[in-house]
Amino acid sequence: MTYRAGRHFLQIPGPTNVPDRVLRAMDLPTIDHRGPEFAALGKEVLAGLRRVFGTTGAAVVFPSSGTGAWEAALVNTLSPGDRVLMFETGHFAALWREMAGRLGLKVDFVPGDWRRGVDPQEVEARLRADPDGGIKAVCVVHNETSTGVTTRIDAVREAVNRSGHPALLMVDTISSLGSIDYRHDDWGVDVTVAGSQKGLMLPPGLGFNAIGPKALKASETAGLPRSYWSWAAMLAPNAQGFFPYTPATNLLYGLREALAMLEAEGLDRVFARHRRHGEATRAAVRAWGLELLCAEPRAYSDSLTAAMVPDGQDADRLREIALDRFDMSLGTGLGRLAGRVFRIGHLGDFNDLMLAGTLAGVEMALSLSGIPFRKGGVQAALDCLSEAQRSGVSLAKTG
Ligand SMILES: *Cc1c(COP(=O)(O)O)cnc(C)c1O
């Protein structure tokens, strides 16, 4: 491999660019995970995580990818043969559904076209059609990373409430926690699933659950077998800051740093920054004359954008050019979207100029690809960013 000067642009929607501060924070000796220094670290990161989830309840950390945290959510709360209601919002929803099936759950999978979020009315109708309470959980992906579509979790909660159905509400926030507004307690979510390598700016390797009281109660009687993923086994030592098995200590150092960064910026500002980058990216895609995959404006994702290429064109060819010529990784089309879309990740440790560079790389790659498009996407994004900065000046000064 020849040397490539400058920084690689890792603009897939996770893993995201890990800030130098986080990398340096992890560059420490691993300590005794049964000693007092570790206990302080454990308590600090668990408290910080609860604030990011927006919960005063329990949060747990597994040494796993996000997929492990999916599994933990299901096996701690459900029993073999239980029915769960899931929605085909995209590739990740489909993977979670497959996992549920393999674990012996019966999935009611509501079909979707991968272009919109979960319809709260559909949630309500499905639950009303189940007066005997056969459905034990409703599982929703907050931000579909394969499509760039966000579901309104507060509206889903209200739909569950209106139906009067007792099912648990479980939400995958793997690509939204720390980048799109999310409130575990306020929205009455029972289990929230997250991972380290997207909005939380860490390398891959940590999976998280936030656990509400109703889910905790369900875990006392849930019959699916579990051992490594057991909340009870985790929560007991967590009370003193410890873990039931060797934790990923150095990733926890990184987590402590990432949480400090999010708190210093302020979650509201973090969300506003992602909103601004989402809007600017969508302005670029429109100016290029490409179609956004997300078909519902209120469901636009602020952490990534999926753009469609015209029929007969290959989005992966564009990604190859971006990587080869400009040292930038863009997200591929997953599952049935293979070759049809490319995804621009704009989440995590990211600023206006990084976005400008990213979009410049996409526009140059489009020029080289032969895909029909109009120039001017970068300019449209820059206009959008400078307008946002102009109206945000007073906020920055008073804050
Ligand atoms: C990335 C992602 C996953 C899978 O997480 P892994 O860490 O790859 O196991 C699941 N759901 C969503 C929404 C994701 O973005």
Give your account of this protein's structure.
The chain has 399 residues and is an alpha/beta fold. It folds into two domains: 9-16 and 267-390, Aspartate Aminotransferase, domain 1 (Alpha-Beta Complex); 20-263, Aspartate Aminotransferase, domain 2. It contains 13 helices and 14 strands. Strands 2-10-9-8-5-3-4 form a seven-stranded mixed beta sheet, sandwiched between helices. A three-stranded antiparallel beta sheet has the order 11-12-14. The termini are far apart. The model has no long low-confidence stretch (mean pLDDT 97). It binds pyridoxal-5'-phosphate (PLP). Pyridoxal-5'-phosphate is lined by residues 14, 65-67, 92, 141, 145, 172, 174-175, 195, 204.
Could you outline the blueprint of secondary structure elements for this entry?
Blueprint: E1 9-11, H1 20-26, H2 36-53, E2 58-62, H3 66-77, E3 83-87, H4 91-102, E4 106-110, H5 120-128, E5 135-141, E6 143-144, E7 149-150, H6 153-163, E8 168-172, E9 191-195, E10 207-211, H7 213-221, H8 231-238, H9 249-265, H10 267-288, E11 291-292, E12 304-308, H11 315-326, E13 328-330, E14 341-345, H12 352-369, H13 377-398
Parallel strand pairs: 1-13, 3-4, 3-5, 5-8, 8-9
Antiparallel strand pairs: 2-10, 6-7, 9-10, 11-12, 12-14
Overall 3D geometry?
globular
Return residue spans where pLDDT drops below 50 for at least 5 consecutive residues.
none
Numbering strands along the chain, what is their spatial order in the largest sheet?
2-10-9-8-5-3-4
The tally of structural domains comes to: 2
User: Helices and strands: which structural class?
Assistant: alpha/beta
**What is the fourth-level CATH superfamily of the largest domain?**
Type I PLP-dependent aspartate aminotransferase-like (Major domain)
Level-1 CATH class name of the largest domain: Alpha Beta
Q: How many angstroms does the end-to-end distance come to?
A: 47 Å
Number of helices: 13
The fraction of residues assigned to DSSP E strands is 5-15%
* Count of strand segments: 14
Name the helicity range.
40-55%
